[in-house]
User: Which sequence fits this backbone?
């Protein structure tokens, strides 16, 4: 079945450093979504990418969807303590109806 | 507030027991998803309903079952509980088939 892998599993950065998490799918995706889960909270939708090679920005966050629509990345510039949490990618392939989540990257920002 | 309501928030029970988790989706959302999140783990897809019909099934155990009612609320039934079933169970709803998911705050199940 569809598998979505995410690396790294954990990332500790100093406040102000950049952060990137990568997502790879075993199958071509029709779209990919990114979610953030704060400690003790629930996942909250950040963005959806649909087109091959698509790049979207939200303030300090940059999201990319690979040309082959099998990988994606989230880059945070100049991290802040408010960025702490686990970032999940989630993909849906053309034949699968379910939304499969990656294992997540837990980000810790040290002040 | 995502608009998705889950009850109960916390539940402690013993092995072998049966529990029911309830989810009310956002107003107007027809799709309901159930996910299981074990400690420091990712989100494991269990099952999805769309307007009362099962739409997709993940790695849901046979001891688990779910349904979506005509008023669109959903229930996840967990039976013959084992210690390993202890987890956070999230419900999410969506207004479209491929759109974003809105998650509830989860139901934390502890099996002793």
Assistant:
């Amino acid at each position: 079945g569809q598998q979505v892998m995410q690396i790294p599993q954990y990332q500790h950065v100093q406040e102000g450093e950049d952060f990137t998490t990568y997502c790879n799918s075993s199958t071509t995706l029709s779209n990919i979504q990114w979610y953030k889960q704060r400690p003790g909270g629930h996942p909250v939708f950040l963005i959806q990418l649909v087109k091959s090679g698509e790049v979207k920005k939200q303030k300090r966050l940059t999201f990319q969807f690979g040309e082959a629509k099998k990988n994606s990345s989230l880059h945070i510039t100049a991290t802040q303590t408010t960025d702490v949490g686990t970032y999940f990618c989630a993909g849906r392939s053309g034949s699968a109806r379910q939304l499969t989540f990656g294992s997540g990257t837990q980000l810790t920002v040290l002040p | 507030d995502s608009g998705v309501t889950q009850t109960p928030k916390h539940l402690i029970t013993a092995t072998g027991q049966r529990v029911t988790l309830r989810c009310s989706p956002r107003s107007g959302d027809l799709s309901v998803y159930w996910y299981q999140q074990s400690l420091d783990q990712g989100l494991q897809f269990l099952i999805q309903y769309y307007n009362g019909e099962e739409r997709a099934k993940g790695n849901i155990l046979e001891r688990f079952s779910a349904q979506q009612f005509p008023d669109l609320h959903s229930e996840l039934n967990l039976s013959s509980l084992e210690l390993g079933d202890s987890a956070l169970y999230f419900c999410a709803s969506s207004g479209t088939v491929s759109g974003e998911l809105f998650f509830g705050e989860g139901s934390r199940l502890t099996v002793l």
About this structure: The mean pLDDT of chain B is 94. The longest strand of chain B covers residues 87-94.
